[in-house]
Amino acid sequence: MKKIICIISMLVAAIGISAQSNLLLQTSEVHNLLVHYEADRGSLYRFYTIINSPERRERLKTFYTDYLNRLQQLPFENLSQGGKVDYLLFKRDLQEALYQLSVEEREYNQVKRYVTMADPLYDIEKKRRRGISLNSEEVAGQLNEIQKKINEAIKKLAQEPSFTPELAERAEQTVRGQKAALRSVYNFYNGYDPLFSWWVEKPYQLLDTALGTYAAQLKKKIDPTKLPKDDGSGIIGNPIGRDEIIRQLRYEMMPYTPEELIDIANKEFAWCDYEMLKASNEMGFGNDWKKALEKVKQSFVPPGKQPEAMVDLYNQSMDFIRKNDLITIPPLAEETWRTRMIPPQQQLVSPFFLGGELFQISYPTNTMNHDDKLMSMRGNNPHFSRATVHHELIAGHHLQQFMNNRNKAYRNFRTAFWTEGWALYWEMILWDMNFPRNAEDRIGMLFWRMHRCARIIFSLNYHMGKWTPQQCIDFLVDRVGHERANAEGEVRRSFTGRYGPLYQLAYMMGALQFYSLKKELVDSGKMTYKQFHDAVMSENSMPVEMVRAILTNQKLTKDFTTQWRFYGK
User: Fold this and answer.
1) Rounded to whole angstroms, how far apart are CA atoms 383 and 376?
2) Is pLDDT above 60 for 386?
């Protein structure tokens, strides 16, 4: 009996240790603080909804400072490696949030005299949140008075000094926030409070119109010497300048200057050029690689057959990944991705297919003109798409999203250097493993590798004020071999889409980080490909330098700054 009890006790202890071990796979000492932070921030964002209002700004400043103080009370040196990474990234994000609030406050103070006449709306909206009964006659008088001041400001605006684009946007968005506050109040009380409707309806309508007009005028009140001009491309973005590029690079844990990144891109381009000429010669076109590229573009499938062609490429890619035992693939991830065709209007900014759980296919429709149809078909030929089907599905974006939802989901440290870098890294290693079957496949894969190099060069030169959008388009056409319509879509997406200034360079730089880490851990024999890839997927999204810190147990200090110069390693 004693032996049985002893055995049972040992089994219970073993189960307990196993359960604790499995629990630690999903958490760290900073986990609870991060979960509370996300929930608290959501509550505040839903309560303080009026953007650029002094009340919201001060409340968020207090909130971020409070969490920074709470974080700094944790015993950093006693944290696990994952806990230290969470600490450093959480601290980074809190400091960034406070920095952005300081920018907001500085810009607000510079345009303050143009927007304070509507400040009483903040107080009325604050009462509305709790449903306090208003003196409707008094509110009507306030709105009437504000409307007169706004109309007077509109008349005088032409004589006022012009703004920088940043200040014009801040002024416009502040007034639109005030307009939102007014609408919030009106929609809450109107119809439910008869006196409110009787008194306020007309003053509301007049003030709402005046605020909309004023916001539109402020948006246009820009010093023309500070505004990027249309160079004929119709693409007008917002170059951020070298200093801001460097600041954002440090935030993303990239210890390089823009010039160094362009130099890296040119070195990678040189490798692509060498391989492109090899493939061109193999196809019988000598060193005229653009003729070889043209032949590859002509390999497009007939209308209506593109989804079938993409699924065939997916199956080839999956067979290759399985054959080489490169990564664990959950059956549900294979089962649940689905497809969608990209509408013609969206193809203006997304001329190629997109990925994730929803695999979005770009191909012409009957509504597109003849030239655009041909360019779309040529730019989405099977050899080009062979390079990126695994980028968009497995083991790229779809698997990333699938695993992020299931591994350390509390980590909200999203970065394109991890997301796009990982997906492009798979293009690199499948190239190394001879996934391309022939010269045509290699040219298709090289086209995209060249495209990633070009993204670094054109986006950084644009944001440093050295290139115009049209120069960026021409560069993609001449240097990479893009169809012109596709190049225009790419540049438009880069500078007027919902992407940060570093997004385009994140593909290649993130991929090179993962590639360097692969050499450090896999090529050295410390891990197999599968062990390495599974380990990355288990940590969720974060700057790749922090992935390296976890997988190699790098020494981390409380005042850590980015230092991993990965290229050439």
Assistant:
1) 14
2) yes
Residue 559 lies in a domain: no
525: tokens are 């024999």
Q: Residue 156 carries which side chain, given as an amino acid letter?
A: K
The range of the structural domain enclosing residue 547 comes to: 243-551
What is the band of 297 on the pLDDT scale with cuts at 50, 70, 90? very high
Domain assignment present for 339: yes
Q: Is 2 exposed, middle or buried (0-12, 13-18, 19+ CB in 10 A)?
A: exposed
Q: Say if residues 380 and 362 touch (Cβ distance below 8 Å).
A: yes
Closest CA to 261 of 88, 418, 464: 464
CA angle 487, 462, 474 (to 5 degrees): 30
Q: Any idea which of 374-388, 392-406, 416-430 has the lowest mean pLDDT?
A: 374-388
81 vs 290: CA distance, rounded Å:
49
Domain count, the chain: 2
> What's the CA gap between 469 and 248, in Å, rounded?
21
**198 with 335, same domain?**
no
In 3D space, the residue among 525, 569, 558 whose CA is nearest the CA of residue 544 turns out to be 569
Please say whether the beta carbons of 482 and 451 come within 8 A.
yes
The predicted model scores a pTM of 0.91
Q: Tell me: do 455 and 390 sit in the same domain.
A: yes
pLDDT band at 229; cut points 50, 70, 90: confident
Q: What is the DSSP string of 16-62?
A: HHHHHHHHHTT--TTHHHHHHHHHHHHHHHHH--STT-HHHHHHHHH
Q: How much is the pLDDT for 24?
A: 61
Q: Which two tokens stand for residue 217?
A: 């005028």
Taken in order 222, 227, 231, 236, is the CA torsion positive or negative?
negative
Give me the amino acid identity at 320: F
Q: Are strands 338-341 and 358-361 parallel, antiparallel or unpaired?
A: parallel
Q: What is the mean pLDDT of the chain?
A: 93
Q: Which two tokens stand for residue 74?
A: 């944790």
pLDDT of residue 13: 44
Residue 39 domain-assigned? yes
Greater pLDDT, 183 or 369 = 183
90 shares its domain with 139: yes
The SS3 assignment for 222 reads strand
Q: Show contacts of 101-105: CB within 8 Å, 24+ apart.
A: 101/57, 101/60, 101/61, 101/64, 104/52, 104/57, 104/170, 105/57
Q: What is the DSSP string of 244-312?
A: HHHHHHHHTT----HHHHHHHHHHHHHHHHHHHHHHHHHTT-TT-HHHHHHHHHTTPPPTT-HHHHHHH
519 alpha carbon, distance to own chain's centre: 27
Same domain, 196 and 250: no
Considering the domain architecture, whether residues 170 and 316 belong to the same structural domain is answered as no
Give yes or no for a contact between 117 and 63, defined as CB atoms under 8 angstroms apart.
no
